[in-house]
Amino acid sequence: MGWRLGCVLLLLSTPAWASETDQFTGRGTPLSDSAWAVDERVNGAIRAAVSGWKGARDDFALAHDIRYKIDGLLGFRRISFWLEDHPSLETIDTTRTSRIYAGLPVWKSMLRFFPHLAHTLNVAGVRVGSDKFTHMFSVGWEEYKRFRKNGVPAGLAYGYDTEAGVLGSKFEGIFSNGDLVADAEGLLFYRGLFEDGVVAGKSAMIRWDGDRPVVTREFTIRDHINEYWDEALNTCAYSAPVFEYVARHLKALCVDYAQNPALYDIDRDRDEELSQRYSSVGLKDNTRARLGAVCSALPGSQRSPFSALPGSQSSPF
Questions:
Q1: Taking CA 30 as the corner, what is the angle to CA 24 and CA 36, rounded to the nearest 5 degrees?
Q2: Going along the chain, which residue ranges are E strands?
Q3: Which of 197, 144, 53, 34 is closest to 205 using CA atoms?
Q4: DSSP secondary structure letters along 124-166
Q5: pLDDT tens by residue, 178-225
Q6: Could you tell me if 130 and 116 are in contact, meaning their C-beta atoms sit under 8 angstroms apart?
């Protein structure tokens, strides 16, 4: 009984319920751009928090109110489900159709206890799981809290620890590099509410006129999203039992890959640029899980265009 209660308390204290996503399945299905919806929700939350502000200047309290309006109590994936249920957005639900996770045995991963897979959306041209927005605005919030007390390394360490812990590697055998990137961009979002230059070339979104907050520019997800949010490009790192299962299913996609490799590949220069940008967030080597690498290992195939990228100290964090 004690360990069950402990697990429940741990889940309740972590601002993102376990959820994986699959951007391999339905890769060629066209999806309309949902960036406008993300922008609308976030800007609406910022405006509501600013217009309803009462009391003395308090950056932290105002940021907390914005987070709540975006993602709800404790980060129970309010924005994620809102995006999935939005009547004007096109999404792909791979919960029952996933070509890489469907049927994953419970003795290999506890993912089966969280059977819902986050839907895939097109956001500013990036195919991304809806879960990434709870990562950005709720796990990113937890990073921001720790950043305020102990600096950037402490903030980023929180995101890494959650992914390496029971909501990632230890529980599911799946370490999502895309989650870490979204977490880190959430830290930048909260800093950028009040700090100039956090988003390159842009001022803070809010300034204070005495004790009154004033919105000075609008949020756009385009300042944060990139190919490393896409788990078919910036793939996960897996435990050995999970990778054994996933790799077998990835091999079945090699026919699709051969017909249109550009659909699954990231430009090498862009890959290196993003690898350097996020070198301090704790990304794990995912080379073997990239479809180009999996397919290149098959007999008669060409060498993969991918190779492990060296770490870099160049980072905005």
A1: 105
A2: 20-21, 117-118, 120-123, 126-129, 174-175, 206-209, 212-215, 237-238
A3: 197
A4: TTEEEETHHHHIIIIIHHHHHHHHHHH-HHHHHHHHHHHHHTT
A5: 999 999 999 999 999 999 999 988 999 999 999 999 999 999 999 999
A6: no
